[in-house]
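Please discuss these two lines.
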Amino acid sequence: METVQQQIIDFTQATSFDNALDIVFKDYVRYKLYYLKNENNRYEIKWGMTFDEFEKKSPDMQGGMSFETEQEYYQWEAVITELQYFKNKLQQWT
């Protein structure tokens, strides 16, 4: 039975385990960024504005912000925060 290390090396076709991990982590970050960008785009399409615009307009929403809108605000904010975090990580690694 192959070790996990050997399986990762075989899968990535890397020359060493360190190289294999580098490939796996960079790919993970790229896929995470892809997902987060799509999530951000989904929110932008749904609300017809960027997060910054939504943040500025949300206090002025008619009747205030509903519980559901507030939850969406926090979820969208988390996407933006995570997106920036992973962009920074990718820049550090490349």
Remarks:
- DSSP finds four helices and no strands in the chain.
